[in-house]
Design brief:
Blueprint: E1 3-4, E2 10-11, E3 20-21, E4 24-25, H1 35-54, H2 58-62
Length: 70
């Protein structure tokens, strides 16, 4: 989404990052080119959490199947 300012300049808004490590900001902003790497890190963390908390193997977490009776 591009926004046109009052003076005619266009700019793309960047989402504000509020995460902190101690008293310092985690990041100033997240760039568009960083999203793929961050999504990969997030999905890896989710896989690890699901596998550890459920006791499932990684393959079982990655390939869920519907076991409900029809």
């Amino acid at each position: 989404m591009t926004i046109l300012s009052a003076n005619g300049c266009s700019w793309v808004p960047r989402p504000r990052v509020c995460g902190r490590i101690g008293d310092a900001l985690w990041r100033a902003a997240i760039g568009f080119d960083e999203v793929d790497a961050l999504v990969l890190h997030l999905s890896t963390a989710a896989l690890i959490c699901c596998a550890c908390l459920s006791g499932m193997r990684p393959e079982e977490v990655l390939a869920p199947r519907n076991t409900t009776a029809k």
